[in-house]
Amino acid sequence: MADVAHESAPNPGPIMGLILGAWQSRMLLAAVEHDIFTELSKGAATAAELAGRIGLVERPTNDLLAGLAHLGLLESADGTFTNSAVADAFLVRGRPAYLGGYLHFCEQELNPAWNGLADSLRTGRPQNRAAVEGNPYDTLYADADATDGFLDSMDLLNAPIAAALSRFDWSGYTSFVDIGGARGNFAHQIVTHNPHLKGAVFDLPPLEPAFRRHMDRLGDTPTPITFHGGDFFKDDLPAADVLVFGHVLHNWGVDDRVTLLKRAYDALKPGGAVFVYDPMAGGQQPSMHGALAGLTMLVWSRGGHEYTADELHGWLREAGFWPETVEVDGLHDDVLVIGRKAE
């Protein structure tokens, strides 16, 4: 009986695992900052060789490389290290699927905000100064290189959503505007697969150069995609058959969400619709993904948090729409809700 009781007694392993997990993420971020995966994409190297090439200290570099190998990001043989397949695909600078821009965003924007989680839980206020003063994206978009890197990663991560919605039946509409559509990746894919549509993006004016560069890289669409610069809380939204709010509403508080939906209603043509997609992972018992997203919104955004589809239905009705949750294959963790405006 004593042995059975001993085996079933709780131990601190799971708690220590959480702490170690946080340190493991720091290893990844440090490796990306020093372009270790990019350097190893050129060929295998020992810790001494790599440290010498990129100006690091050998002993801790060996510890870092060994740790990254245990995490599955490197492979080790006979004292040399090479990238694993996943690192080679997503952590080598300059490759199409490089996630370094998002990791830089985590390091520079999200992680410092998360350091103040205890304070935000007490005050309900974000730790991100830009959010406190107005728009959480102001500091992010102030640096052109950081902006491009961040948007590269966002386009990669959101590509399945654009692919899924490009297969949606758009035959009843002739135009759409992607609100908060950044540099137009979503709009480009929708128009490419639905050539009868006229597409546009509405976002902050500093993003227009990034939009122009990205459109040039992607190539022409059947009809050119246009960019409208503005602040969606201050400036009129462009008129269209459809206004799309993708991963936008969860960044803002409830009053701001209703305001945006009312502004969308005013801008839409009669018979038009607002398309909203978000994880919609709120509620009293959110998933781990929903809980993490909600706390991230708490510390980084201006009142943002996750919400449920039922809550969104209520805000859409308040704004004048008739709401409907629509099943779309391929949306994975996201939900699409359409709010329809009367003819």
Largest sheet: 7 strands, mixed
Q: Gap between N and C termini, in Å?
A: 74 Å
Do you know the CATH architecture of the largest domain? 3-Layer(aba) Sandwich
> What is the rounded Rg?
23 Å
Instruction: Give the helices and strands as they follow along the chain.
Output: HHHEHHEEHHHHHEHEHEEHEHHEE
Domain O-methyltransferase dimerisation: 17-92
Protein name: Methyltransferase
Pfam family, one: Dimerisation
Active site: 250
Description:
It is a single chain. This protein has helices at 2-8, 13-33, 36-40, 47-54, 58-70, 85-90, 100-114, 117-123, 129-133, 144-166, 185-193, 208-218, 254-267, 288-300, 309-319, and strands spanning 45-46, 74-77, 80-83, 175-179, 198-203, 226-229, 240-246, 268-278, 322-326, 335-340. With 343 residues, it is an alpha/beta fold. The protein has 2 domains: 12-93, Winged helix-like DNA-binding domain superfamily/Winged helix DNA-binding domain (Arc Repressor Mutant, subunit A); 154-340, Rossmann fold (3-Layer(aba) Sandwich). It has a 7-stranded mixed β-sheet, sandwiched between helices. A 3-stranded antiparallel β-sheet has the order 1-3-2. It starts with a helix and ends with a strand.
